[in-house]
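Lab meeting notes turned into a lecture example. A postdoc, R.K., suggested we walk through two folding results consecutively so the class can see how the record format repeats. The first protein's sequence and structure tokens come next.
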Amino acid sequence: MSRKIDEKKTKRALRRLDRARKAAEEAGTPDRELSEWEGEFLGSLEERLETYGSAFNDPDKGNTEDALSARQALKLREIEKKAKGKARKPMSRGSGFRRKTVSFASRSRDIHDDLEPDNGDTGTTPGDISPDPAETPEIRRARFRIVDPSGDPKT
């Protein structure tokens, strides 16, 4: 790591690491304690910052003038929030692609809503009612007709 990093930024990052570690230790509650991985993470960052002045080498991972990469800064922020008791909640598992709302209201019409109630006056069922012949689709539809010269149209 041969980049030149501003010493102020390195010292600021070291102070943030120390504050995060102390805040987690002072909290004393089990949910605010640092995990083994978080302790190793803070230790390795501190070691790299003291040795090289920066905790990362790849310029694609963050601003080359900063002491911490973007992901390292993000994880450090999460550790600081955890120490304050404002840790992010883990994602819930098992919901998959199911709907989040339980109630489902149909937006379509129900065909049974259009039927008139059966009062018992007529013994007909909806299938027995025949439509008016003038209303059948064959008669309403336009057709070609052959006109007989005698005046009698044939269909």
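The second example is placed directly after the first for contrast:
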Amino acid sequence: MVDNNTVMEDGKCIECGANQTEGHSCYEMFQFPLIWEHNDHELYALHFWLVSCYMIQHPSNYTKDGYHLLINLFTKAYDGKWDTEYILLKNRELASQIKKITNPVPNKERERISEKWSMTIEYVFKSGETNAINSINKWTEHIRMDLKEKQGC
């Protein structure tokens, strides 16, 4: 099983910068919308965007090639307004071209780089289940804008 737990220091995630909220780390806050989407098929349709936004902000979970695949897929899907079925098809195609996607280094030994993001999972969590669709869509927009600023893509 992949260990995606995050490292919190002084009440903040050292990768995405999310504040610990109601005693939850950013990884724990991420679990809430994963549960919410099981109650709402419209919310579940945003699963790719939810997971991608979170994982883009936590690159230590990936190999260098795996992270570049995620960024490439996210930006092409967002810019091209791809539907979920096509995203999954392209994901399978791209993933088959690299050896290892997830970081094999044990979680506690991973190198983590702090980045400033305009929005994190904290926003989705605080917005709550009833506003999850809007907050995930907004988070997706912010991630795309941030990627343009950070990487020029």
